[in-house]
Amino acid sequence: MGQSSDELRNAALSYHRLPRPGKLEIQATKPLGNQRDLALAYTPGVAAACQAIAVDPAQAASLTIRSNLVAVVTNGTAVLGLGDIGPLASKPVMEGKAVLFKKFAGIDVFDIEIDAHTVKNVVETVAALEPTFGGINLEDIKAPECFEIEEQLKARMKIPVFHDDQHGTAIIVCAAIRNALVLNGKKLEDIKIVTAGAGAAALACLNLLVSMGAKRENIWVNDIDGLVYEGRNTLMDKWKSIYAQKTDQRTLAESIVGADVFLGLSGPNVLTTEMLKTMADGPLIMALANPTPEIMPDVAREARPDAMICTGRSDFPNQVNNVLCFPFIFRGALDVGATAINEEMKRAAVDALAQLARDPPSDVVTRGFDGTESRGFGPGSLIPGAFDPRIILRVAPAVAKAAMESGVATRPIEDFTAYAEELGRFAFRSGLIMKPVFAKARNQPMRVIYAEGEDERVLRATQAVIEEGIARPILVGRPSVVATRLKRAGFSIKAGEDFDLINPEDDPRYRSYVQSYVDVAGRHGITPDAARTLVRTNSTVIAALAVQRGEADAMLCGVEGRFLSHLRRIREIIGIRPELTDYSALALLITNKGSYFIADTQIRQNPTAEELAEIAALAAVHVQRFGIKPRIAFLSHSDFGSHDSESAHKMRRATELLARSHPEIESDGEMQGDSALSEMARNQVLPHSRLEGSANIMIMPNLDAANIAFQMIKVLSGALPVGPILIGPAKTAHILTPSVTARGILNMTAVAVVEAQERMKQPTLFA
């Protein structure tokens, strides 16, 4: 399963070496391109910020990065399963932790590896860092020293101090246990919990479980010397002694009899199948040692088919991965200026993670570890997937509220709705630009038909569409297939109640659909026999006919199949607006530097100047629906007359035609890409351009240029695509691409609804 150890090692080394060493870099967040920028960023301007903070230290939160900056600190004494390898060798792990903070929660991190080996040295070093950071994440420090270090730092520092090896693991473990108890009908206060391992993570898990209601007398702790019992003198400390049992038992095999939960945070293969068979009915087995767990999940499953199994490995379900916790608990803590991360905040994180696992899964995590489809909440899905973008939306607000209610928040959040929107923009980068479109869609929901109604991405989008209240969905699909997939995904929506369904195999409108198809497409080669077949077998035909007949206001297709095949059916059934020469496609790319539209990315091979002007004008209409002022650049290899080629002349003429027919639209050309995106670069070539600022609509000279630019920008910048938006159909219809996500379908639904609204209000505009 997966790569061999040698292959993985070589791949990991290449990953860290290339294209440049390490996984981190520092990026400026403010411009530094001229003398004035330098004066503001550094001397003399920086003195104003320094003085403001000297007068009021709280100003550091708004004038510096501190409120979003965390230190990941280690002394390298307990690195992963590698042991005491020292601070320098631990650096790749700490860099990795830093990028996870940034990726999942937008938190900036400095990794700090310290050559300090006593509790006192570590505490003094870390405590001295308080002016720099908004929070401290302790990492890979061996037990029992880690307990004392965290305890002392929490007492001395007025910022959150969080030892993730302890508490991050504990939060996820507790969420999994909570959900396992929901499934097996047991209560936390009644269950017997047995551990293999008594290090920082294991004891933190037990401490948190006790704070949630587990009974100390029901907890049995085992370590390398066997059971922790009263009177034992070897390898004991004050933290472990709390769980010492008064018993004659001495081994894991003895103590595990009748256990409801096995919690393994120890080493490989310490749990045998014989031990498993002595556990209680419906046990939860948490074999979390890495890379080789206490028992392999497949072996455990064979020995105890009734068991629920969690692991630390990424190649099995129910992976207990700390990335589910630490970015988001820090996000909530930083956003309220918390002075600590306390038990209330940890329990809030447990509750949020447990509830999210019980909700229908996100489309991002619908594929399981082996490529099979996930089944929603159940024994194989006790905790959310690591890449579920909703985690930040649930955990961060829950932690922030708990911080406020427990009195450790110094900057309480006043509007949690606005806070959730901000987090949503991070989790779903399309949130900001799509917000006005969704707002318009909610004002007047329309009927949207989805050609590929059986596809799980469409079903997930349908659930979201219903929750957002932006449309009445109509799905093309077989009822039994749709019902089965909805149940498997854990959705509660039902055909006939929440959405409508057209069954291609048995719909009472079949004959009338066939006749409608012949009526509109008979002169396009569609015979009655062909119509009868296609209305049964081609879902795009069905969706297009529903729109043409007025039974739906808009259609989406293209989740499966080729773009041009779908376009052919739309062309022959819905047709093109009479004043246009052809269809075109507008694609949106949402990047970290802004949102940009590109046309035509799909249809016209080599449009004329007249066609380019037409595409640009129609693109401007679509862009205005996003609440964005269109700024159009006609792109070329030529920069305002620098070349005298046929292509340059074409783009020059297209610019003139648009300026003449639509002087109200801000546009210019022909120009190179840097001139389009940078006003400074443009002014060096043409100081009096009709375009201000950066262009947001890029009209390309041909299909090759448009599609190549779109695909390269998408990959190189990690941009989020929206679309393509089909320009020109006589009624609202859009063709998606097979790579589209459920979120992408949701976004395009909102776009389609707003377009359909405008068609209803201004039919002559689309006549």
Describe this structure in words.
It is built from 30 helices and 21 strands. Residues 364-374 have low confidence and may be disordered. It is globular, with a radius of gyration of 30 Å. The longest helix is centred in the first third of the chain and has 21 residues, at 164-184. Helix content is 44%, strand content 13%. With 767 residues, the protein is an alpha/beta fold.
Ordered list of secondary-structure elements with their pairings:
Layout: H1 5-17, H2 35-41, H3 46-55, H4 60-63, E1 69-74, H5 87-105, E2 108-113, H6 119-127, E3 135-138, H7 145-156, E4 161-163, H8 164-184, E5 193-196, H9 200-212, E6 219-223, E7 226-227, H10 238-241, H11 252-255, E8 261-264, H12 273-276, E9 284-287, H13 297-303, E10 308-311, H14 326-335, H15 343-358, H16 391-405, H17 416-427, H18 431-443, E11 446-450, H19 456-468, E12 471-476, H20 479-489, E13 500-502, H21 510-521, H22 528-537, H23 539-548, E14 554-557, H24 563-573, E15 584-591, E16 594-599, H25 609-624, E17 631-635, H26 646-661, E18 666-671, H27 673-677, H28 679-685, E19 697-699, H29 703-716, E20 720-727, E21 732-735, H30 742-761
Parallel strand pairs: 1-2, 1-3, 3-4, 5-6, 5-8, 8-9, 9-10, 11-12, 11-14, 12-13, 14-21, 16-19, 17-18, 17-19
Antiparallel strand pairs: 6-7, 15-16, 15-20
